[in-house]
Amino acid sequence: MDAKEIYAALEKQFPGKVRDFKGEVLEPYLTADDDSIIEVCRFLRDGAGLNFEVLSDLTALDWPKEEKIQVVYHLFSYSRNHQIVIKVDLPRDNPRVSTVESVWKVANWFEREVFDLFGVIFEGHSDLRRIMLPEDWTGHPLRKDYVEQEEYDGISTQRAPLVEKLLR
Amino acid sequence: MNETAPIETGFYTEDMTISVGPQHPSTHGVLRFVVKTDGEVISEAIPDVGYLHRSIEKIGEKVTYHGYVPYTDRADYLAAMFANQAFCMAAEKLAGTEVTRRGEFCRVIACELNRIASHLISVGTFGQDIGAMTPFVHALRERETINNLMEEICGARLTYNYIRIGGVGYDIFTETCNRIIEFLDHFGPIVDEFNRLLSGNKIFIERLAGVAVVSKEEAFSYNLVGPNLRGSGIKWDIRRDIPYSIYPELDFDVPIGTAQVGTLGDSFDRYWVRIREMQESVKILRQCLKMMPKGPAIAKVPKKFRPPAGECYARVEAPRGDMGFYVVSDGSEYPYRVRIRTGSYTAMSIIDKLSKGIMVADLIALIGSLDVDAPEIDR
């Protein structure tokens, strides 16, 4: 199936829950409602002719101007050799979305990474801890307005530029 | 420590919590496991990653497209060429840049040499983890030759920065091509020797056969990729199924696990896929060197590289499987977001599940057979 047909199948199954299909771009994507993401994903995995066995990638994009964080799901089907990108828009001040861990197990680690680096809360996640950074780190580095903390455990995170040192 | 109920004989069994790593010879970089065991049997092995987090993705937002290529090297130091290629493919797709034909050949030659080098490290250290020291030295000796060839091609032995947007940094000269052929002639029999030394070894086989079996469903659900996926009997290779570069013109097989000595999807199957992939790479290299056309190695690409706003996801088949670069552009000189999706990350997430109920020694076999690579996990 091409992306258009996948969108049509989704629209038929979930009227009003999926929208903004963009088919004329490099990676065709659609936007799904944040409260229906589990059902949409499960349908994409099990639905006839869809067979999206794997979640290739799960990440997020920060758009401070639009006041939103987008969680991006890259799905792929080995048996049908087709793909689709699903996006979910979340408010930037309180990004919350259900976990898709029950559909694909790999979502556990992907979501932990997005939680760590973007601060998106995945509701119902079995083990939502930071994965890259230490537990007591403040802030979420991949947000556009992130400012690094000045020191961590008494160690400075800043260093004078080496060039200046040479010039002195 | 949790005490379990005393057995009638009066003996106690106690759960023990051990920290394996981050500086452990079999951890392939810097990673750590918190292992809970009951005697020799593991009840839980929780991976603790992040020791090598260098925020490569954040750096991507601060440097230009051209300037980001050397950073991609550091994502996976054993297979730097593939990260180069995936990022360049993403940038080219965004901007609609055409790669020159000779450039594509140079890319494939460099990548396949890199794949052999990476698999040699993988199978060599795997043997070492299991307790076979000699094959490791043999594997590294061969890898040294490849490093020399790489140095001849691009001036670097590990972090290449060879593939650039639009082609490759330097052309491959005829003398180098001849030396590559010399190496291939020498390497074919070496694989057989390696098989006699390690793959056919009774102790080695018994340590791996039937250990840490990954079923097809698990491989899908945890999104295992590359040799780990093919070890479970799924014939899927991006080079063949979502063709890129010049791979459609080349003739090669996709080896999959065949349950030769144990169960389908066990540690030996994953190992055996890597050995046969090296032989396929030799086949690919010979064809490339024969078919290589004349022409420029790199296309004319503007210094100020500004792809139009949009996003794209490029996949390549790296030695550790599907390596994906998700690049979002907002039309400026700098990428808006770069996301690197690596094979080791998902392979690492399955260890928790597979380690339940296996022996401590088998955990080491499991980590080695999945070929996880710490810098690629943490990025």
What characteristics describe this protein?
heterodimer, A: 168 residues, alpha/beta, 5-stranded mixed beta sheet, two-stranded parallel ribbon, B: alpha+beta, Cytochrome-c3 Hydrogenase, chain B, 48% helix
Number of helices of chain B: 15
Instruction: Name the overall outline of chain B.
Output: globular
The count of β-strands of chain A is: 9
- Please provide the ordered H/E string of secondary-structure elements of chain B: EEEHHHHHEEHHHHHHEEEHHHH
What does this structure look like?
The complex is a heterodimer of chains A (168) and B (379). Chain A contains four helices and nine strands, in the order H-E-E-H-E-E-E-E-H-E-E-E-H. Chain A has 168 residues and is an alpha/beta fold. In chain A, a hairpin with a 4-residue loop joins strand 4 (68-77) and strand 5 (82-91). The model of chain A has no long low-confidence stretch (mean pLDDT 85). By secondary structure, chain B is an alpha+beta fold. Chain B folds into two domains: 5-47, no CATH class; 48-378, Cytochrome-c3 Hydrogenase, chain B (Orthogonal Bundle). Chain B has helices at 56-60, 65-73, 80-95, 101-130, 134-154, 174-199, 202-208, 216-221, 227-231, 238-241, 267-291, 343-349, 351-354, 360-370, 374-378, and strands at residues 15-20, 32-38, 41-48, 163-164, 167-168, 310-318, 321-329, 335-341. A three-stranded antiparallel beta sheet of chain B has the order 1-2-3. In chain B, strand 7 and strand 8 (335-341) form a beta hairpin. In chain B, helix 11 (267-291) packs parallel to helix 14. The longest helix of chain B has 30 residues, at 101-130. The interface between A and B is medium-sized, with 29 and 36 residues.
